[in-house]
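ok so I'm stuck.
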Amino acid sequence: MDEREFFRTVAERTGLSREEAADLTRAALEAIARRLSEGAVGDLVLHLPDGLDATMRGVKGRPNKRSGLNEAEEQVAERTGLTREEVHAGFREVLGTLREVVPETEFDRAVDQLPGEFRRLMAEGTQEPA
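replied:
not stuck anymore, here's the structure
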């Protein structure tokens, strides 16, 4: 999957334009990287499409279970101008698409460093209606 395909996937799954999906994807990846160790970011970057790897590379962060999803969504909404609902759905789809391009071991290792809200967010998209 290349960078444009990543954006297209997020756009299709969220109903956002490709430009909005690209902005959201970059902002979400940076927000995620700020909450991970350098090693986890490095592992993810190895598997990202060209262009997106640079988005995460160089972002300084550290594992922080207290800097939760709500704060990340606020940061992304402020940066992109999207609504909180769009950002919430977008975060879920960015994580879901990331899961598709990164090997399971590296993805799980990274997500384990994030607050539990991020894992619950990913589960929202996989639950079937009752």
